[in-house]
């Protein structure tokens, strides 16, 4: 029998790990941002408004106005290797590959934009991965992030005659490994600051408030993350006040409160002059941390009277972050390796 080149019969079975994050445009241009936003905001898991109502708003208004504004924001954080979210997710996958060794194939993909999940899963399958752990890199579960990544995995599997076995990494917000990694990495960064912050503001990406009432656990998982991180830091930073807020409001509906912008203003107006901000809902720095928090957040805080401001990095490829990722993944691979 002649087998086509690359047919799985001729390749030793392998285990694969696919890291998935949200996605980002290919370039900081209105055209590329428009393409990305169209895919992202057309996902009914993200915008839960009936298509008949949403599509005219999306195509008639948002996709004509927002790409230009967002491209300007992306241009301010774009690095030599591209968008921070893509650069960091790639580096996380490369780091994990080194940590796990070549017996396990590690790849990365984005839910929207490139590299898309479909072609990467196909590559892993063609390389002989009969067992794949798909790890959406969101510590907290939400339908708009975790669920849509798993939906897309399902769609890709639907198109395969010979499917790999799959597992998915559960949300890890309150996992002691995650809390310890955040504690160690935030403590390291706080100690390196040229000032002593009075407040550490933990800012999470927002969601429409009604998703909470519809049963999305995201809000509770963010709050619990903040409580656990605060408790974990208390021993080493006894005078540090921990506050929590939600950022990146999109559209006119009410989102989870308090809003980060309002909180920064209220804290500065209330007499807080030295503040650090961190985003423990993001596994990698991105537009929302580097532009919205580090650039615009600083402006808001300083305009309201704040004097010292620092935006701390996400776990990214820090020692603590990578050790956590390896431990979470190894645990999930139990029985497969
Ligand atoms: C970390 C969890 C995230 C949740 C929850 C989330 C919900 C959510 N987001 C939008 C709309 C936008 N988000 C945008 C960027 C963006 N969002 C996340 C993560 C979550 N989103 C990340 C990591 C990023 C950054 C992407 C990057 O390229 O760096 C954007 C695009 C940028 C912009 O134009 O502002 C939009 C739009 C909604 C509507 C939503 C929940 C329903
Ligand atoms: Fe978002
Ligand atoms: Fe934003």
Automatic annotation (TrEMBL):
It catalyses: heme b + 2 H(+) = protoporphyrin IX + Fe(2+); Fe-coproporphyrin III + 2 H(+) = coproporphyrin III + Fe(2+). Fe(2+) binds at residues 205, 288. Its main location: cytoplasm. It comes from the Bacteria. One of its GO terms (biological process) is heme biosynthetic process. It is found in: Cytoplasm. GO terms for cellular component: cytoplasm. Keywords: Cytoplasm, Heme biosynthesis, Iron, Lyase, Metal-binding, Porphyrin biosynthesis. Gene3D superfamilies: 3.40.50.1400. GO terms for molecular function: ferrochelatase activity; metal ion binding. Pathway: Porphyrin-containing compound metabolism; protoheme biosynthesis; protoheme from protoporphyrin-IX: step 1/1. Its EC number is 4.98.1.1. It is an enzyme of class 4 (lyase). InterPro entries: Ferrochelatase, Ferrochelatase_AS, Ferrochelatase_C, Ferrochelatase_N. NCBIfam families: hemH. Catalyzes the ferrous insertion into protoporphyrin IX. Belongs to the ferrochelatase family. This is Ferrochelatase. It comes from Novosphingobium ginsenosidimutans. The gene is hemH.
């Amino acid at each position: 029998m002649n087998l086509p080149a690359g047919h799985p019969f001729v390749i030793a079975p392998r285990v694969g790990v696919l890291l998935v994050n949200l996605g980002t445009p290919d370039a900081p241009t209105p055209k590329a941002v428009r393409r990305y936003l169209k895919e992202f905001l057309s996902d009914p898991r993200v915008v839960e408004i009936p298509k008949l109502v949403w599509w005219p708003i999306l195509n008639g208004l948002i996709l004509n106005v927002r790409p230009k504004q967002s491209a300007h924001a992306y241009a301010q954080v774009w690095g030599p290797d591209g968008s921070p979210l893509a650069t960091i997710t790639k580096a996380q996958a490369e780091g994990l590959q080194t940590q796990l060794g070549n017996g396990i194939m590690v790849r990365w993909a984005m839910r929207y934009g490139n590299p898309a999940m479909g072609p990467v899963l196909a590559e892993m399958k063609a390389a002989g991965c009969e067992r794949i752990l798909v790890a959406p890199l969101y510590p907290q579960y939400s339908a708009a992030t975790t669920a849509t990544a798993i939906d897309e995995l399902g769609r890709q599997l639907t198109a395969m005659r010979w499917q790999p076995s799959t597992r998915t990494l559960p949300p890890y917000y309150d996992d002691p490994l995650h809390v310890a990694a955040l504690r160690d990495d935030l403590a390291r960064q706080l100690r390196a600051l040229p000032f002593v912050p009075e407040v550490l503001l933990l800012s999470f990406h927002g969601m429409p408030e009604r998703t909470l009432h519809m049963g999305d656990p995201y809000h509770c998982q963010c709050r619990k993350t903040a409580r656990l991180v605060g408790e974990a830091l208390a021993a080493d930073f006894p005078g540090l006040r921990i506050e929590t807020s939600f950022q990146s409001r999109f559209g006119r509906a009410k989102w989870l409160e308090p809003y980060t912008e309002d909180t920064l203003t209220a804290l500065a107006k209330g007499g807080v002059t030295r503040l650090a901000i961190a985003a423990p809902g993001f596994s990698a720095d991105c537009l929302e941390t580097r532009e919205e928090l580090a650039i615009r957040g600083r402006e808001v805080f300083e305009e309201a009277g704040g004097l010292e401001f620092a935006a701390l990095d996400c776990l990214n490829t820090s020692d603590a972050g990578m050790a956590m990722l390896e431990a979470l993944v190894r645990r999930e691979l139990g029985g497969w390796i």
